[in-house]
Amino acid sequence: MSAIESSPGVDIRAIVEKQRAAFLAREPYTLEERCELLDRAMGLLVNNEQAIIDALTADFGHRSPAFSKGSEVLSPLATLKQTKAELAQWMQPEKRQARGGEAWVQYQPLGVVGIVTAWNVPAYMVFSGLAGALAAGNRVIIKPSEFNPHTSALIARLIASVYAEEEVAVVLGGPEVGQAFCGQPFDHLLFTGATSIGKHVLRAAAEHLVPVTLELGGKSPAIISRSADFKDAVAKVVIGKLLNAGQLCVAPDHVYVARESLDAFVAVAKAVVAKFFPTLKDNPEYTSIINARHFQRLQGYLSEAREAGVELIELNAAGEDFSQGTLNKVMPTLLLNPADDLQVMQDEIFGPLLPIIAYDDIGEVIARINARPRPLALYYFGQDVDEEARVLSRTCSGGVTLNGVMSHASSEGLPFGGVGASGMGAYHGIDGFRTFSHAKAVLRTAANLA
């Protein structure tokens, strides 16, 4: 059976040992075998689309079906297809220069990979992580979030239906199970989640010197330059913020706007929301906050900002009353120039609240960004090539999308990862294949050359 509710540490170790024994008992998976393993994952997504959407809706209270289909089915399906299409090329030895011999790098599977996923896009994280790990020829154990009980249970059943436990297994459980999971002697561990939890993951993995890839988060800024197509920039930032109700690790967290354009930003934002979300409370495309704890966290940010005198602008075209809502929906809200010491400017927001910060000079923006921990993403809107180059060279973030938001994170040709407090290491595409592989240096000396 490939999914277990484990007592912390005990059953997980048994699966690790079972997978490692299977890995060592035979030659590494061939290209054809790896492609067949990827095919099984693709079949799960194709054949269970509605079940995945329904499970996510049950977990969130309400979740946009269109977003669920795109992010949790079509996107990982595209990742798996592209991985399969490019895998033969990735597996080829990479020739290197060497004196007095023939040299190359040979990529070989590590063995047993652990994957811990977050709750905000759970199926995407499971299957995109699985794509890289299986492509590299590994056995895999997955620990999905307990915040998504319906989705996690479904994923466990689906994985168990097409993979043997020694190929891919799923472990279910709460924080104690997660802590025990991260302390296992994996050959690599991929964790996606909060920065605060990432510190605990590193400590647990250190016991066995397990290499770790951390996909964390942070306060990803958007910058709207004076040279930008203003209406287009505002629309992209606002719609990007409202996808999954802001519950995305690469969502624009706050936006820098030229001081003279502050009122124009508010006006365009109101028009954009009125067009795309004419109603919110019962709109099937507007997602709920995952649970009561996070709902109250967001309400706390608003209360603190209101008490501090921050101007709050609700983007509520229909003037709906949210006070009696039962689905943990939070009204999209702009916060004008909140002080840096407020919690909304300290924590990753992970919700549909958007602070707007007025600036006079781009140097001021760069300085403010550099005064914070390095973010997972940065977004720059503008046509000034010198200013763009300055932003790119003077700031450090996991990734950047220019004149858009979040697109870099879904591009399989680019590594996805953070830097500093927003993470370490990267995956997606060939970078995922290499993360889950050992790059073995090989030198054939001249004496052995024919």
Automatic annotation (TrEMBL):
Q: Where is the active site?
A: E215, C249
What keywords were assigned to this record? NAD, Oxidoreductase
InterPro entries registered for this protein in UniProt: Ald_DH/histidinol_DH, Ald_DH_C, Ald_DH_CS_GLU, Ald_DH_N, Aldehyde_DH_dom, Aldehyde_DH_NAD(P)
Q: Name one GO molecular function term.
A: aldehyde dehydrogenase (NAD+) activity
**Alphabetized PROSITE patterns for the sequence:** ALDEHYDE_DEHYDR_GLU
Query: Which positions fall inside the Aldehyde dehydrogenase domain?
Result: 9-442
Any single Gene Ontology cellular-component annotation? cytoplasm
Q: Which GO terms describe its biological process?
A: aldehyde metabolic process
Q: Which domain of life is it from?
A: Bacteria
Return the similarity comment: Belongs to the aldehyde dehydrogenase family.
Q: Which PANTHER family match?
A: ALDEHYDE DEHYDROGENASE, ALDEHYDE DEHYDROGENASE ALDX-RELATED
* Name of the protein in its database record: Aldehyde dehydrogenase
Organism encoding this protein: Pseudomonas vancouverensis
